Amino acid sequence: MAFLRAVQVEMLKIRKSKMIWITLAVFTMAPMMAGFFIFVLKNPALAKSSGLIGDKAQIFGVADWPTYLSMLAQIIAVGGILVFGFVTSWVFGREYADRTIKDLLTLPTHRMIIILAKFLAVMLTNLLLSVYIVLLGVSIGFFIQLPEWSLEMVLDKGFVLVATTLLTLALSAPPAFLACYGRGYLAPIGFILFMVVLAQVIAAAGYGAFFPWAVPAIFSGMAGTETALGAGSFFLVLFTGFIGLAATVSWWLYADQH
Amino acid sequence: MDPVIQLSQLSKRYKNFSAVEDVSLEIEKGEIYGFIGLNGSGKTTTIKMLLGMVRPSHGSCSIQGRKIELSNHSMWANVGSLVETPYAYPELTVKENLEIFRQLRGVSDADAVHQVMEQLKLTGYADKKAGKLSLGNTQRLGIAKALLHKPEILILDEPSNGLDPTGIIEVRELFQHLAKDLGVTIFMSSHLLSEVAKIATTIGVIHQGKLLQEIKADGFKDLLRKRLVIDAREKDRAMTELNNAGYSAVFNKDGRIETTADYALQYPDEISRYLVSSGIPPTHLALEEEDLESYFLRVITQRKE
What we know:
Number of domains of chain B: 2
Radius of gyration of chain A: 20 Å
CATH class of the largest domain in chain B: Alpha Beta
Order of helices and strands of chain B: EEEHEEEHHHEHEHEEHEHEEHHEH
CATH architecture of the largest domain in chain B: 3-Layer(aba) Sandwich
CATH superfamily of the largest domain in chain B: P-loop containing nucleotide triphosphate hydrolases
Order of helices and strands of chain A: HHHHHHHHHHHH
Helix content of chain A: over 70%
Number of strands of chain B: 14
Oligomer: heterodimer
Distance between the termini of chain B: 38 Å
Structural class of chain A: mainly alpha
Radius of gyration of chain B: 24 Å
Largest interface: A-B, 29 and 31 residues
Number of helices of chain B: 11
Largest sheet of chain B: 6 strands, mixed
Number of helices of chain A: 12
CATH topology of the largest domain in chain B: Rossmann fold
Helix content of chain B: 25-40%
Strand order of the largest sheet of chain B: 6-7-8-3-9-10
């Protein structure tokens, strides 16, 4: 009961914040851009006349549903690390930045309940953001009338989308710890940006399978990251998420809260 | 009667710095304990240890006989707190801020938010976002959060910060009502010494992390230095006459004559009679008492010496 109340409160705080609506607006741009590139790709005459944009669109390959859904998975893989990380950083860091943490530490509820409620609220929010991106993307796909829609393809790409989302969600736990340790948003946001850049470099060098922040992008089939992923890579991502969760819990339970 | 709040040899050490050193105190039910000290004296660290936010390096604290530790979280149902400047979720309204804490604290009375807003005169700001509130109203919101669940114990760090004079009086009367009529135990730190002097039943003086002195309000008057301040048209003559009579008079910084001789303090009328009979009638004669501020400065200065 206390847990559900805490989740409700966290969801209210997220819903009432400007952060979530700005994030949503920025994240909305991604499927719209993908839709635009696919539209350009689908219309060769337009691709020819649009110069550089036409050339860029060629990178994505064929203008059909499988290609387009792969693009959406890649958006979640890379955009998700940033966006989900921002949401997590805000949910945990704002308590320090707004100095409201003191009120949460003196509740007649075990601190573990508050932390887990925060994590669940973050997961639900990020999941909803993913669902929104997929629904918006699919609507755009139908609007531009992409070919090769089939149940088999939907199941196949749907699995990639769900798995990519879950992998990316797991990676949003370490920023929670950094938000607590750094007592605000700056440390985790800096960390996320650094990890995204590092993931690009490591994936390009061919070692992406061993770097958690590169795994979702590789799994989603991002161009230029053709590396074989074994069970170890997925375990590494989940382990990173677990470490983030455990570190955050330990911080709330055992660190001095100044 | 068992103390409601108990600190036993409480210490907090950081690498090369001792923030709180061997502080022990006990607070009984219905008491208002004023914890006074300079900035950085250890007040807030003590309060944070009492609220379980900071772990003591040594010693322990307990509330209603229960030791402050993670597993004893249910004790916070009886405690309302305010630490340093109160903050609220800026994007939520006053009502929403209180409502979420009503839910988090599991307060079943749905009217509790309305009642506490009335009590703290926040009803007019119910739908205003907390981020747009004045400092004084933010402070009222902080106190409202502390009182929302009708706690038996209040632990407040600088509760009068930011309040205007009317607000200070209202909050003082509220605390006095809570302690006197409802038996609420209040532990409050403040640097507004005059405010503490008006409200506290016991005063604890903390300096450089050490509890220098504990004074009961009823015994406090005996500790304050008194002096008889005299003025006359012929000051030098009056001074000579008083010294000749053995009253050890001196000129104070205002240029008036001052004596702390016991007889003079007990019988100022005799001093007046004496000066009149000497042909130097006083134009001013007043028995003045040291205030808490001067007393506090004297105590910590003696400590430094």
